[in-house]
């Protein structure tokens, strides 16, 4: 996969040299090019922003530098043999970044990120490139960052670990929270390693039993426990067909019952504490 990032803070992307993404680059599985937007600012102050039409606070990033940066990055990528580029525009106004979107992006051969500072990029830039390439406007959560660079780090790491050969163990993202499969839509429960005793705290006995069926059931019960506490919305929107008899028992213990539509909700007596 090829990744281009155009930014006014290239050094903000230095973490892409470290850990999983850094190793994927070193192995040639990921070709990351970081470009300084100011290369394409031609006045003596290298201006990339201006005041917003219609007034209001803050500054808006100008069309000119972004247009030249994207044209040149596209030309360079095509020349290097890359194909099917997609533009990823980090913005708090974008669609939510989810594991599903990470999987979709990981199937694309070439991503171009346009993290913005200030109040964002003049809308005509995304409009223009949307006539030529798929454009994903993406938000990494319901909070506001000072710029999109941190979002590029987040999205790149989530995508890179899905690329073939990047994770050591081919199975290790099968039961990630949010991955499709038997634990779909449940958070992962607690994990333990040696020593077996630490500050008076032991290990749940079932994990030492060697009984794989019981261990799988225990893990699923703990996944329900954690999901009910931290993300009850995930249970509410789950297709109840995904729950077996033991799942329903566990949900009942945790105070959840099927409603008229079959979907699970907190039992009335368990609500409000
Ligand atoms: Cl992608 N950018 C900014 N500036 N703030 C955000 C965001 C992105 N996602 C959530 N908040």
Structure description:
With 273 residues, this protein is α/β, with parallel strands linked by helices. The protein folds into two domains: 2-160, Alpha/beta knot (3-Layer(aba) Sandwich), CATH 3.40.1280.10; 177-272, tRNA(m1g37)methyltransferase, domain 2 (Trp Operon Repressor, Chain A). The chain contains eight helices and nine strands. It has helices at 19-26, 63-79, 99-106, 123-130, 149-160, 212-230, 232-236, 245-253, and strands spanning 2-7, 31-36, 49-50, 60-61, 85-96, 110-113, 135-139, 256-258, 264-266. It has a five-stranded parallel β-sheet with strand order 2-1-6-5-7. β1 (2-7), α1 (19-26) and β2 form a beta-alpha-beta unit. The chain is elongated and about 70 Å long. The relative contact order is 0.11. The model has no long low-confidence stretch (mean pLDDT 95).
Describe this structure in a few short sentences.
The longest helix is centred in the C-terminal third of the chain and has 19 residues, at 212-230. The mean pLDDT is 95.
| Estimated radius of gyration | 23 Å
CATH architectural type of the largest domain: 3-Layer(aba) Sandwich
pLDDT < 50 runs, ≥5 residues: none
- As a percent range, the share of strand residues is 15-25%
Note the main attributes of this structure.
binds 6-chloroguanine, five-stranded parallel β-sheet, alpha/beta, two-stranded antiparallel sheet, Trp Operon Repressor, Chain A, 8 helices, Alpha/beta knot, 2 domains, 273 residues
């Amino acid at each position: 996969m090829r990744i281009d990032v155009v930014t006014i803070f290239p050094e903000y992307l230095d973490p892409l040299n470290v850990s999983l993404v850094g190793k994927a680059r070193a192995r040639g599985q990921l070709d990351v090019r970081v470009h300084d937007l100011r290369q394409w600012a031609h006045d003596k102050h290298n201006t990339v922003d201006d005041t917003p039409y219609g007034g209001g606070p803050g500054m808006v990033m100008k069309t000119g530098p972004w247009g030249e940066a994207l044209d040149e990055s596209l030309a360079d990528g095509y020349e290097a043999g890359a194909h099917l580029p997609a533009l990823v525009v980090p913005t708090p106004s974008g669609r939510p970044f989810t594991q599903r979107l990470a999987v979709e992006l990981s199937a694309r051969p070439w991503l171009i990120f346009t993290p913005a500072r200030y109040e964002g990029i003049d809308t005509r830039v995304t409009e223009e490139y949307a006539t030529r390439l798929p454009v994903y406007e993406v938000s990494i959560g319901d909070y506001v960052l000072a710029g999109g660079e941190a979002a590029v780090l987040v999205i790149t790491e989530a995508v890179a670990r899905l690329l073939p050969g990047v994770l050591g163990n081919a199975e290790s993202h099968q039961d990630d929270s949010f991955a499709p499969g038997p634990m779909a839509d449940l958070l992962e429960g607690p994990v333990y390693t040696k020593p077996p005793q630490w500050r008076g705290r032991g290990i749940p006995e079932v994990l030492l039993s060697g009984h794989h069926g019981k261990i799988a059931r225990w893990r699923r019960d703990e996944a329900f426990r954690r999901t009910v506490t931290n993300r009850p919305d995930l249970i509410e929107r789950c297709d109840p067909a995904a729950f077996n008899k033991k799942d329903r028992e566990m949900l009942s213990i945790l105070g959840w019952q099927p409603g008229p539509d079959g979907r699970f909700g907190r039992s009335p007596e368990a609500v409000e504490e």
